[in-house]
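Example 5.3 — NADP-dependent oxidoreductase
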Amino acid sequence: MSKAALYDEIGGPDVLYIGEVPDAAPGPGEVAVRVGAAGLNPYDAKVLSGAIPTKASFPRRIGGDLAGTVEAVGEGAVYADGTPIEVGDEVLGRAAGAISERVIAAASDLARRPAALPVDVAGGLYVAGLTAVAVLDTLPVDSRDTVLIGGAAGGVGFIAAQLAVATGARVIGTASARNHDLLRSLGIEPLTYGDDLATRVAALGAPTAVYDCHGRDALNAGIALGLSPQRMVAIAAGPAGDELGVRTAGREARTAVNLSILAARVAAGEIVVPVSASYPLDQVAAAFTALGRAHAPGKVIVTP
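Solution (predicted structure tokens):
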């Protein structure tokens, strides 16, 4: 038996508790991972609250992002490059119910964790990191571009902004004023959220691409400045993005191969991914509370 974060009804962080679950054996193409760190994402909170419905029976487990140590290997479990996964390997990736001491993961959702990549950083990299990769894959940019990023200090936007800077693009990013110095240190030109965003963007230069990682404000600014909806990508605007005719970030780039590449770049210091708060498993409710009020860049992590 292992401990896991569980809940018996939809609601807020207060419905979460720690219970014991049976240790399952990995099937073909699966591995058992002893979890060292599990990252929280807004998606997890939406599932917990019922905003994103699921038919899973109660008690439900929660979480997706993880990093940890391979404890058992099912038949045919290999990395994306075809090499076998072995007991003792340090990995990162995703698995359903990752906020647990032990979890079963598909081998196809895992990559090797570089030794220089801290386990807590690795544990929160999958969803935000691969979503950011998908944004740039959907709408690539280069040194000829000026990119407006809505929510450049958020989980996805912070990584997407750095990836865009690395292409040579000029990057303008919206964020709260307290995060402006950090964005400047990474080569991102910050603007505050709020009224007259299009006017303030225009004063810096007309964007050639818009990445929505926060909501509709950056998309509205792009439209106001005459940018084609085909030069915009939405991940946070929801129905508003559909209404404006902009593209959503595709899923093709969200692979273990790209996770491995991103992990290597973070380990090398090319991409900064801070951890804003870390909690032990028995404080998972506090971790979700922190997720709901997070204002600083970085991931909230649970460390079983």
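Remark. Residues 126-138 form the longest helix (13 residues).
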